[in-house]
Amino acid sequence: MKLYFIPFACSLATRIAVIEAELDADFVQVTPDAVLADGRPFRTVSPMGYVPALETEAGVTLTEGAAVLSYIADLAAEGVLAPPLVSDERYRMTMWLNFVATELHKSVFAPLMGRAAGPEERAAAKARAARPFAVLEAHFTEGRPFLVDTFSVADAYLLAVLNWCEHAGVPIDEWQAVKAWRGAMRRRPSVAQAMAEEMPLLKAA
Questions:
Q1: Which of 35, 42, 97, 104 has the fewest CB atoms within 10 Å, measured from its CB?
Q2: Domain for residue 196, yes or no?
Q3: 72 in the same domain as 39
Q4: At which of 80, 100, 128 does a domain end?
Q5: In b/e form, how buried is each residue of 74-113, taking b as 16+ CB within 10 angstroms?
Q6: Is 62 in the same domain as 152?
Q7: pLDDT digits (tens, 9 = 90+) for 7-51
Q8: Of 50, 80, 110, at which residue does a domain stop?
């Protein structure tokens, strides 16, 4: 499979997942308006210009992070990246994937990380952080090491998003359980490897 990514974007979660599951993937670094090596504009792969985007060996193209991560989870051995299919924990994982995508990524961080948002929109985005961060704080204060019973692609996605806190001006220090969870995730071997692989690419970008 071919995975299109931008260093330290939300696509970092796909690299973590691939490493965690010991899968093979061809990672292709892109910019939203780039032309790919084969001459195609990247937007022919991902019409919105977003990463991650995935092309399967069968020629199927997937966009949207939750869909790409779910696909990778299903390629992995059972229990490595997701709970079993048709289980309560699997549906909880899907719930958390959507929570990260809607309540954090799009609602809070997209306006703060983009260039189009004005001061009022940025202030509103920061204000919106309180409720989802409170939900996470309560979850992790109970001593849970992961979003569901075991490590999953939802954890990889949340870690990728929480990496942006300092750059976006989101005060993660106010949420000590969330900050501690992020620190623990950064020490996980698959996460540490993925971040080490992408950091030089980020610096060179």
A1: 35
A2: no
A3: yes
A4: 80
A5: ebbeeebbbbeeeeeebebbbebbebbbebbbebbbebbe
A6: no
A7: 999 999 999 999 999 999 999 999 988 899 999 999 999 999 999
A8: 80
What is the predicted pLDDT for the residue at 114? Answer: 86
Dihedral sign (CA 136, 138, 142, 148):
negative
Residue 125 phi/psi, 5° resolution? Answer: -65, -45
Bridge partners, 46 (sequence order): none
Whole-model pTM over 0.85: yes
- pLDDT for the residue 78: 93
Nearest alpha carbon to residue 186 among 166, 204, 160, 165: 160
Range of the domain at 128: 88-190
Give first-to-last CA distance, the chain, whole Å. Answer: 24
Exposed, middle or buried, 154 (CB in 10 Å: 0-12/13-18/19+)? buried
Same domain flag for 99 and 38 = no
Q: How many domains does the chain have?
A: 2
Neighbours of 37 (CB within 10 A): 7
